[in-house]
Structure formats: C-alpha cells, structure tokens
C-alpha cells in the first residue's frame, strides 16, 4: 500500500513538472520580441500571392514580378509603413485574391465558409439517419402483415414476364 502511494506521488510530481515545462515553453515562444525588417519582409511576402505563378507566395516565387513585389515590400518596410498598409496597397492594385488568406468579411470568405457549411449539413444528415426510430413507430399487427403479403402477391401476379412486355 505504501509503495502504491509513493508511485502515485512520483506520478503527480512528474505530471506537475511536465505541466510547468509546457507552460514555460508556451510562455517562451509567445514572448514579445521585435521583428527585424528582413523578417517582416519575409512574413509579408509569404502572405502575398505571386501574380504570375498564382500558386506560390511572392516569397517563394522565382518570377521577375515576384522579385519586384518583394522589392516594393522591402521599400515600404524601410519607409516605416505598417503591414496592413502594405497589404492594402497590393489589394488596391490586384484585388483581394493577391492575399493568400483572403479576409472572411469579403465575398471570397465564402470559399472558406461553404465547405464548413457542407460539413455541418452532412453531419446533421448523418446524425438524423442514425437516430433511433420515433417512439410512435410500432410493429405491424398480424392482420396488417397478412394484408400486405396479400397485396404483394396480387401485384406480383399482375407482373408480366420481361419478354411479354
């Protein structure tokens, strides 16, 4: 019994140490730090779509247009403009599609919401199909079963063979 209590105590200590380590790691990664201009340029250009490649970010694209866009972003960062001002400048020139993650408030937000709505509707339909039958549903009586069987027999006797049709 004493050994079991010691085991629980050591497990609790290990759990507390793991939680403290996790809290320290989260706190360390979430600490505020100043971003260098080069890091800002990399972050902003990774959020913008290349106008030539369209599947790549400006940061990852090797095209001349992407290089020019990177230079413009670097110039705006050096001028001291905010990230939103830089993004808004590109949106004004190219539209919302130039941003790789379009804002949810615009019509392009439907691209994000329609699959979610379809998933919810599908889950609702699936749950409805797995729901138990209503409490009012009952088994048919013997007389009703006999009537149904007789009706099926009559309808089958009226069926003609396929080659006679």
What does this structure look like?
The chain is an all-alpha fold and 165 residues long. The protein has a domain at 37-108: Orthogonal Bundle (Helicase, Ruva Protein, domain 3), CATH 1.10.8.640. 64% of the residues lie in helices and 0% in strands. It has six helices and no strands.
Distance between the termini: 85 Å
Query: Taking Cα atoms only, what radius of gyration do you get, to the nearest Å?
Result: 33 Å
Uncertain runs are: none
Give the SSE order as H and E letters.
HHHHHH
What's the structural blueprint in terms of helices and strands?
Layout: H1 2-29, H2 37-47, H3 64-79, H4 83-94, H5 110-130, H6 142-158
Helix pairs in contact: 2-3
Give a quick precis of the structure.
With 165 residues, the chain is an all-alpha fold. It contains six helices and no strands. It has helices spanning 2-29, 37-47, 64-79, 83-94, 110-130, 142-158.
Give short descriptive properties of this protein.
flat, 165 residues, Helicase, Ruva Protein, domain 3, mainly alpha
């Amino acid at each position: 019994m004493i050994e079991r209590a010691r085991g629980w105590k050591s497990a609790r200590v290990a759990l507390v140490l793991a939680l403290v380590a996790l809290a320290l790691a989260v706190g360390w990664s979430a600490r505020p730090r100043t971003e260098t201009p080069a890091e800002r340029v990399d972050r902003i250009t990774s959020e913008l779509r290349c106008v030539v490649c369209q599947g790549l970010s400006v940061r990852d694209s090797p095209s001349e247009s992407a290089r020019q866009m990177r230079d413009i972003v670097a110039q705006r960062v050096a001028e001291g403009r905010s990230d939103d001002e830089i993004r808004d400048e590109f949106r004004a020139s190219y539209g919302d599609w130039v941003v790789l993650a379009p804002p949810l408030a615009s019509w392009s937000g439907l691209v994000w919401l329609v699959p979610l709505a379809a998933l919810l509707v599908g889950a609702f339909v699936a749950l409805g199909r797995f729901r138990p039958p209503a409490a009012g549903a009952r088994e048919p009586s013997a007389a009703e079963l006999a009537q149904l069987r007789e009706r099926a027999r009559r309808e089958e006797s009226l069926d003609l063979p396929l080659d006679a049709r």
